[in-house]
Amino acid sequence: MSNGGKIVASQLMRAAFLVGAAGLVASIIGALLDRTQFFRSYLFAFSFWLAIPLGSLAILMIQYLTGGQWGWIIRRSLEAAAATLPLIAVLFVPVMVGLSVIYPWADAEQLAHDAALQQKSSYLNGPFFVARALFYLGAWATISFFLNRWSRQQDDSSAIGDHRRLRRLSGPGLLLYFITMTFAAIDWFMSIEPHWYSTIYGVLWIVNQGLSAFAFAVVVLALSENHAPLTTYLRPSHFHDLGNLLLAFVMLWAYIAFSQYLIIWSGNLTEEIPWYIKRNAGGWSWIPPVLIVFHFFVPFFLLLLRDVKQKSAVLAWVAVGILAMRLVDNYWLLMPGFADPEAIIHWLDIALIIGIGGLWCGTFLWQREKRPLVPSVTSEITEDAVHA
């Protein structure tokens, strides 16, 4: 990165940490005033910021397995985002502290009067929940550590073996990610409503994370396009490819979300339909139409246009809109589970999004500033040789 780019990145990093600190201080005050709302808002904010580093890790492994210029040009952003997973592990601590507030199965009083919860207690219990969470977080952080470490070594070496070990890790690593994230989605999010279940729920969160990560990578690339050495390699075709992939993830999100709805609607089982009934009633009823229009139809038609995909600024704004809709979708997925009939945004929701987001973005910028904005040319040649 050029000196001017480094100065801007340093200024943004400091600003992110300051904004994050202000949000976290306000959130701590809110926790003292309303402990229940704090932990509920915290899980919502955590779920949003979890998606970008985990989705980046998955896309990074996919890129190592498949190759392609689309991934090479955003690899540094993916690596920096994945490198924040140790911070994500630390940020999960408040969720563990607030188990009895967030989850009905962790509340001794509710557990004592609910036979269904008692039947699930061998799986849904505090110690086992924490043990599983530590395994998930540890596995993700370990994969990220070795991918980043070997990538740094690859930049300094022309050996084809350096890239092959990245591919060898990415195959089983991607499988491990799919399995652990499926269980994490069940543990952390679906068990808010432990009487409900969906076999496609884990896949929905995996796709959500991929979409969030791609949108974030597009925004970062557009903001960095005038910084060396990106200016040497970046072409409109790169944005075009990323726009096509972003379109594919938008379509995949719509397919998975609609599939879950269609399966539950056609089954019409009393164990399943309450989840959608509460999310389509009262103050929540306005959110599904908004998601259908602005999370699917608007980006879908915009991303069909070549001019949108080849103009970095326009594509970045589409990606920003998708990230905003991801925030709305996460809110709709989680918050009705706390039995609030109205979709009232609490100020702690905003404070924690800003607080956790500022801390995460500052850490991301710190990780990204450690290395050049693109992998070395030797690394690119090595990758092409591997896939030849």
How far apart the termini lie comes to 30 Å
* Low-pLDDT runs: none
Mean pLDDT: 91
Pattern of helices and strands: HHHHHHHHHHHHHHHHHHH
Assembly type of the chains comes to single chain
Rg over C-alpha atoms, rounded to the nearest angstrom? 21 Å
Main sheet record? none
Shape: globular
Approximately how much beta-strand content do the residues carry? under 5%
**Helix/strand structural class:** mainly alpha
How many distinct beta strands?
0
Q: Helix proportion of residues, in percent?
A: over 70%
Helices, by number, come to 19
What does this structure look like?
- The chain is mainly alpha-helical and 388 residues long.
- Helix content is 79%, strand content 0%.
- The longest helix has 32 residues, at 35-66.
- It starts with a helix and ends with a helix.
- The model has no long low-confidence stretch (mean pLDDT 91).
Give keywords:
388 residues; mainly alpha; 19 helices; 79% helix
Write a short abstract of this structure:
Helix content is 79%, strand content 0%. The chain has 388 residues and is mainly alpha-helical.
Topology (elements, then pairings):
Layout: H1 3-33, H2 35-66, H3 69-82, H4 85-91, H5 93-97, H6 99-102, H7 108-112, H8 115-119, H9 126-155, H10 160-188, H11 201-224, H12 230-233, H13 236-267, H14 274-279, H15 287-302, H16 306-310, H17 312-334, H18 347-368, H19 377-387
